[in-house]
Design brief:
The protein is α+β, with helices and mostly antiparallel strands. Helix content is 21%, strand content 21%.
C-alpha cells in the first residue's frame, strides 16, 4: 500500500508540473526553452576551451584568439597581428574548437573575450601561477565578480536599439575601425552606465553579467555570459603536466637506474634550477649532477620543451627516497629516509601539483607554505624536514594533488 501511495503522489506532482508549464504564456514558454538553449551552448563552449588548453601540444594552457571574420576558424593575418591577437574580443572560433555551430536562444553565434597572456602562439609563461586579467562585474555593475578571468564567453541575445547587425560597414568603436555591422562587437555586446565612471562594456571591458532591465522594466543589457578563471583551467592542466612528468621520471629511472636529484627549493631562478646531490627534497631539477655530459657538465634532463619554457619545474614539489638516488653519500642534514611514505604507504618518489595560489598568496615564491596546504606536506624544507606525506585533504577541484612512483 505504501508503494502504491508513493506512486500516486509522484503521478499527481508530475501532472501538476505539466499544468503549470501549460499555463505559462507562449512568450514565457519560449523564454524557458531559450534560457536552456543558451546555457547549454555557453557550457559546451566553456568545456571546449578548457579541453583545448589542456590538450595543446606545444604550450599547454593556451587558448585560440577570437575569430574576427566570422568564419569559425583562426588564421594568421586574419585573426593575428604578428604573434598577437588582432583583437581580444571577437566571435568564438567554433570550428577551431571542433564544436558544432553553437547558437544562443536568439539564433546568434557566441562571442568571446580572452586574456592576452593566454593567447595561442604567445610568449607569456603559462603555469599554475598564471592568472587572467579580465575584469567582470555582477549584474548590478558595481559588485566585482572576478578581477582575473582568463576568458569570457557571451550569448549576445537579440539586437538592442542602435545595434546594426547587417553587412553595411560603419565605425566600430571597440575595434577602432570601420567594419561590416555583423563583425563589430558593439552591435552584439551591450554596455551599462556608459559614458560614466562605472561604464561597463562587453565589447571591450570591463565586462558585466546580464540580463539587466532599466528602471522602467525595459531590457538595458541582454548579454548572458560565462566566465573561465584560472581555477577552472589549472586542475585539468596540472593533471596533464603530472601525467607527462610521471612518464618522464619513469623513463629516466629505466635508463639510469635512479631518479635525478632535486634542485634546492630556494635555488631555482628563471631557467637556472640545477639538481643538487646534497638534497633529497626540493623542486624538479633541470640537470642531474650524478651524470656528466661529454663536456664534464651536469646532464641536462630531457623534459618536454614546454615544461622548461613555462617553468613548470618551479611549481612542483619533488622528493626522492635516498635509496632511489645515485648515491646517498653526499646527502646532508636533515636526514633523508631510504623510502618515503604517503599516508603510511611506502613509495620511492613523490611530487605535488599545487593548484592555483590561495587568496593573498603571491607566487612564484620560496615558501613551501605558498604551494602546499597540508602541514604534513609542507615541512619538507628546513631543520625539521621529514619524509612523511599525506594525501591532500582538500576536496576542492582546484587543490594540491600528490603523485607517487613506482
Amino acid at each position: 500500500m505504501k508503494g502504491m501511495a508513493s506512486f500516486l503522489l509522484i503521478a499527481i506532482l508530475a501532472m501538476f508540473g505539466i499544468y503549470l508549464i501549460a499555463a505559462l504564456p507562449a512568450t514565457d514558454l519560449a523564454n524557458v526553452q531559450g534560457a536552456g538553449d543558451t546555457s547549454l551552448a555557453l557550457a559546451e563552449a566553456r568545456d571546449a576551451l578548457i579541453g583545448y588548453a589542456v590538450s595543446d601540444a606545444t604550450r599547454p594552457g593556451e587558448l585560440p584568439c577570437p575569430d574576427m571574420n566570422d568564419d569559425g576558424t583562426i588564421q594568421i593575418a586574419t585573426d593575428y597581428v604578428g604573434s598577437n591577437c588582432k583583437s581580444y574580443v571577437g566571435r568564438l572560433p567554433w570550428k577551431t574548437l571542433n564544436l558544432p555551430d553553437l547558437r544562443d536562444a536568439s539564433g546568434e553565434r557566441l562571442w568571446y573575450a580572452l586574456s592576452p597572456a593566454y593567447h595561442a602562439n604567445g610568449s607569456a609563461i603559462l603555469d599554475s601561477d598564471t592568472t587572467g586579467s579580465l575584469t567582470v562585474y555582477s549584474s548590478d555593475g558595481l559588485t566585482l565578480f572576478s578581477s582575473n578571468a582568463v576568458a569570457v564567453i557571451f550569448s549576445p541575445g537579440t539586437a538592442l536599439k542602435g545595434q546594426a547587425r547587417g553587412s553595411t560597414a560603419s565605425s566600430c568603436p571597440s575595434l577602432g575601425s570601420s567594419v561590416a555591422g555583423y563583425l563589430c562587437p558593439d552591435n552584439y555586446l551591450d554596455t551599462l552606465n556608459c559614458p560614466g565612471a562605472n561604464c561597463r562594456s562587453n565589447a571591450s571591458g570591463p565586462f558585466v553579467m546580464g540580463p539587466i532591465r532599466d528602471a522602467n522594466g525595459l531590457v538595458a543589457l541582454n548579454d548572458t555570459l560565462i566566465v573561465i578563471r584560472a581555477g577552472d583551467l589549472v586542475p585539468g592542466l596540472e593533471k596533464r603536466v603530472a601525467r607527462e612528468l610521471r612518464a618522464s621520471l619513469q623513463s629516466y629511472f629505466i635508463a639510469n637506474h635512479h631518479y635525478p636529484y632535486p634542485a634546492r627549493y630556494d635555488h631555482c631562478d628563471g631557467e637556472q634550477c640545477d639538481g643538487d646531490d646534497t638534497v633529497c627534497r626540493g623542486r624538479v631539477p633541470l640537470t642531474d649532477p650524478s651524470i656528466l655530459d661529454k663536456h664534464g657538465n651536469p646532464l641536462q634532463i630531457g623534459w618536454p620543451s614546454w615544461f622548461v619554457d613555462n617553468q613548470w619545474y618551479r611549481e612542483v614539489y619533488y622528493s626522492v627516497g635516498a635509496a632511489s638516488l645515485a648515491s646517498s653519500a653526499s646527502l646532508s642534514a636533515p636526514v633523508c629516509s631510504a623510502q618515503l611514505t604517503v599516508s603510511g604507504l611506502p613509495v620511492d618518489l613523490v611530487f605535488f601539483m599545487p593548484g592555483t595560489p590561495l587568496p593573498g598568496v603571491r607566487r612564484p615564491s620560496n615558501l613551501l607554505s605558498d604551494y602546499l596546504e597540508d602541514a604534513e606536506n609542507r615541512d619538507g624544507w628546513g631543520a625539521d624536514a621529514n619524509d612523511l606525506y599525506v594525501i591532500p585533504t582538500s576536496k576542492f577541484n582546484d587543490r594540491d594533488r600528490v603523485y607517487t612512483l613506482p
